[in-house]
Amino acid sequence: MKILLVEDDLDLSLVLKKALQKELYTIDIAPCLADASHLLTHFRYDLILLDLMLPDGNGITFCQKLRARGEGIPLIILTAKDTIMDRVFGLDSGADDYLAKPFSLAELMARIRARLRNPITPENPLALKIADLEIDQRTKKVTRGGKLILLTPKEYRLLEFLALNQDATLSEEIIKEALLDFEEQTLSNVISVYIYRLRNKIDKDHSVKLIHTLRGIGYRFGYL
């Protein structure tokens, strides 16, 4: 599952990113509404976590615009504005849930799970299928040709990230920023090591290869 966190507090963003990654979610962080709009144009997300008071505008207006153009992505507001009227206005503006700061991580995780239990729709699929590879985003089960593939948590997150960005060219820096803790990002060959391990599990013994290395550029997932 891929989540967009729209939050300008860097410390809070890093705490949430680390906590969500432990739950096997893939996280992109946008510190402002302009960055959020850019990411939504280029990537598909399963859920948005949205602060309201951002440097370039109000999250409520952003939420209203999303709904006005038919975007059905589940959206949870995270904000210090905690009056009853604030909550009512946020929900009436199109948010699916509203959580006032400070909040517990356990409660946030529960609310995210509740939002992602929605029925599968074209806008919010919970299963990914590429060739004969199937990824169940709810159970984290991966199969290829009907055969179960056992992955470590980091291998699963990498595979899901690649599959969610199928046919896009992803540099090592993009993958590092999306998936790794700060300490791991400093390791020079960490992504190539994970790709090697994942390729051995996903592509080995299959004539159709899904993980492709573009020398000097990055990686691409899907058919070439």
Structure commentary:
The chain is an alpha/beta fold and 224 residues long. The protein has 9 helices and 13 strands. The modification 4-aspartylphosphate is found at residue 51. It comes from Wolinella succinogenes (strain ATCC 29543 / DSM 1740 / CCUG 13145 / JCM 31913 / LMG 7466 / NCTC 11488 / FDC 602W) (Vibrio succinogenes). GO terms for molecular function: phosphorelay response regulator activity; transcription cis-regulatory region binding.
Key features of this structure:
two-component regulatory system, 224 residues, 9 helices, alpha/beta, five-stranded parallel beta sheet, Arc Repressor Mutant, subunit A, OmpR/PhoB-type_DNA-bd, phosphorelay response regulator activity, Rossmann fold, TRANSCRIPTIONAL ACTIVATOR PROTEIN COPR, transcription regulation, four-stranded antiparallel beta sheet, 13 strands
CATH fold category name of the largest domain: Rossmann fold
- The H-level CATH homologous superfamily of the largest domain, spelled out, is Response regulator
Label the CATH architecture of the largest domain. Answer: 3-Layer(aba) Sandwich
Helix content: 40-55%
Shape: elongated
> What is the C-alpha radius of gyration, as a whole number of Å?
18 Å
> Alpha-carbon distance between the termini?
24 Å
Strand content: 15-25%
For the sheet with most strands, the description reads:
5 strands, parallel
Low-confidence stretches: 119-124
Strands in their spatial order, largest beta sheet:
2-1-3-6-7
Order of helices and strands: EHEHEEEHEHEHEEEEHHHHEE
Modified residues (4-aspartylphosphate): 51
GO molecular function, one term: transcription cis-regulatory region binding
Pfam families: Response_reg, Trans_reg_C
DNA-binding region: 125-223
